[in-house]
Amino acid sequence: MRRPSKPLLIAGIPIAGLALTSYHGGRGASAWSPPPPVSSSTTATASTRSRSSSSSVVLLHSSTSTNTDEIDLTSLNLTPELTMMTTAFSSIPDEKTRHKQLLYMASKLPSVDDRRETLMIGENKVPGCLSTVYVDCTLDKKKVDGDDSDNNSDDGEGVMVVNYHGDSDGLLTKGLLALLIRGLNGNTPQSIQKVDPNFIQVAKISQTLTPGRNNGFLNMLAVMKRKAMEKLEEYESGIVSDGSDGEGEEVVVVNEKEESVQQQEEEVEDNNKNNDSIVTSFDEIEGKPMYNTIMSTLIPILKPTSISLVDNSSQHAGHAGSKGWAESGESHFALHIVADVFDGLSLVKRHQLIYMLLGDTMEKIHALEIKAMSPDEV
Predict the structure, then answer these.
(1) Which of 34, 277, 318, 367, by CA, is between 20 and 30 Å from 128?
(2) Strand duo 57-61 + 13-14: pairing
(3) What stretch of H or E contains 290?
(4) DSSP calls for 153-189
C-alpha cells in the first residue's frame, strides 16, 4: 500500500507532529478533516442520514460488536474547540496515532518558566494524578458580538473568559493537560462548568490511557472547573458599592486558604527536591554527534530520573548499512533510562515512544539496545 505523500492534520496540527512530518520527507502538510460517519444500515431513513451527516454527531464503532452507538456532541456541552478535537480524535482509526498526537500536543504546551514560582504551589496541584500536575488560570475580559447566553458582563461590552496555564512532569499527562487548556481557554466559567467529561470516551482517548491516568484526567478537568468559578467569584466580590455616590470602589479580596503557609512552603520544598532528581543536562562528547543528538532529544522531553547511553560502536566496526558509522563512527548504542512517562506503558510502547522521538536519527543507527523503566521498577 502506498504511503500518503503528506502528513495529516488533526485539530490544526500535524498528526504526531514533527516525527511524522520528517517520516514523510518533511513535505508540506495537507489539510485534514474527519470523514463523515457511515450508517450501519443501507436502508436508513432520510432523516437518519441527515442526522448522521451532521458535524455534531459522532458514530462510535466497537471492534468487538456490530452495534453502532450514535453520540450527539451537543449533549456533552463542549466548547467549540473541544467539539472539533473530539470529532477529530474519534475519527483516528488506531490507538497508536492518538497516543502520538497527545505526545506532540505535550511538546507544544506553552512554557511556564516565567510563572513557575506562583504556579507550583499546593493550591494549584491536581490530586490523584500518577504524574505531578499544576494548573491555574486568569480571568480576562473579552469583547463579544451579539447575545451570549453565558455572558457574565453587566455592561454588555464584554464577557469574562478563563485562560489556563499549567505543566506536568509526565509526558502523556502533559498532553492531556494541553488538550484541556486548548479546549477550555477563552470560554466563560459557566460554559466550562457544563462540559461533560465523557467526551474523552467519545474521542476514544480513554482507550489510550491506563485507569490511573484516566482518573487523573477527570481530576484535572474537575480542578480546572473549580478554579474557573473561584476566579469568577473573586472578580464579582472584588467590586462593591460604597453606597455614597453610586460609584464603584475596587476592593482587594484576600481569600482564606485551607492550607497554612507553612504547609505550602513544605510542599514547594518537596516539589523542588523532586525536580532536582530529574536529569536536565549531560556532558556533550566532541566528535559524537549522534550520541549528543540522542541525549539532547530524550532528556528535555522524557525528563528522566536516570539516563545512560553507552556507545558500543567500536565492537561492531564497519557494519554495512549503518549511516552513522559512515558519518561519525557511531552505529551501536545501549540506552538505560528511568522516567515517570513509562509508568503504565508496555515494553513495546516504551520502545515505540523512544523510536518516535528520535525520528530520523534511528535511520542512522544499526542497533539500539533499550532498557526503559519507571521509577517504581528500579
Answers:
(1) 277
(2) unpaired
(3) helix 289-302
(4) -SSSS-EEEEEEEEEESSHHHHHHHHHHHHHHTTB-H
Which residues are known to be catalytic? 129
pLDDT in tens, 187-211: 999 999 999 999 999 999 988 788 8
pLDDT in tens, 135-157: 999 999 887 665 555 555 555 56
CA dihedral 224, 229, 234, 237 (to 10 degrees): 180
DSSP string, 201-216: HHTTGGGGS-HHHHHH
Q: What are phi and psi of 136, to 5 degrees?
A: -145, 175
Q: Strand, helix or coil at 1? A: coil
State the residue for C-alpha cell 500536575. 133
Give, in order, the Cα–Cα distances in Å from 197 to each of 73, 100, 185, 236: 12, 22, 16, 27
* pLDDT (0 to 100) of residue 34: 38
For residues 199 and 86, is the Cβ–Cβ distance under 8 A?
yes
Residues in the chain where the model's pLDDT stays below 70: 1-71, 144-157, 239-276, 316-328
Q: What is the pTM of this model?
A: 0.53
* Angle of CA points 12, 13, 14, to nearest 5°: 130
Helix or strand holding residue 226 (H, E): helix 211-237
Nearest to 332 by CA among 318, 316, 354, 320: 316
Measured between alpha carbons, how far is 99 from 104 in angstroms, rounded to an integer?
9
Classify residue 155 by burial, with Cβ atoms within 10 Å: 0-12, 13-18, 19+. exposed
CA distances for 221 relative to 88, 149, 225, 230, 264, angstroms: 20, 22, 6, 14, 23
The dihedral over CA atoms of 225, 162, 113, 167, expressed in degrees to the nearest 10, equals 30
Beta bridge partner(s), residue 136: 165
